[in-house]
Design a protein that fits this description.
alpha/beta; rod-shaped; PASTA domain-containing protein; Trypsin Inhibitor V, Chain A; three-stranded mixed β-sheet; 2 domains; 6 strands; PASTA_dom
Length: 143
């Protein structure tokens, strides 16, 4: 039995090569995940800025959407239209913060067929393009 146990040579391992290969694979995997997260995160941020995930009800047709929409410039080649029609003040503030804009004056106005305390008009609005740091004034429905 001793002859059998001592007859084979012990295997040799190139530990330096194994460690190098493992580190290279790990670095590639981490870079791939990071790139995927950046792409997914950028798409999510852009979708939320354009209002794709809005869930609140829109007001009746008497509210002019073009007056409650601003064009955000400097993010992509073409300006991005952000429609805040029918959003409450908290949501509108959040969208302005995401767009790196400042909230100006907030005024309540009487507008027919609109939900109270929702956005009916922004200044400046389309077709004017706003850039980061600009001030946007908001008019809310008085009800």
């Amino acid at each position: 039995m001793n002859n059998f146990a001592h007859s084979t040579d012990t295997p040799t391992f190139e530990t330096a090569a194994m460690v190098h290969r493992t580190r290279r694979r790990r670095a590639t995997l981490i870079a791939g995940f990071a790139a995927a997260l950046i792409v997914a995160g950028g798409g999510t941020a852009l979708a939320s800025m354009t209002g794709a995930s809005q869930t609140s009800a829109k007001p009746a047709a008497t509210v002019d959407h073009s007056k409650a929409t601003f064009l955000l410039g400097g993010v992509t080649k073409e300006p991005i239209a952000v429609d805040l029609t029918g959003q409450d003040l908290g949501t509108a503030k959040g969208q302005l913060v995401k767009a790196k804009l400042k909230l100006g004056t907030v005024v309540k106005v009487n507008t027919p067929n609109c939900k109270p305390a929702t956005v009916v008009e922004l200044t400046p609005h389309t077709p004017k393009i706003v850039a980061k740091g600009d001030t946007v004034n908001v008019k809310l429905c008085a009800g």
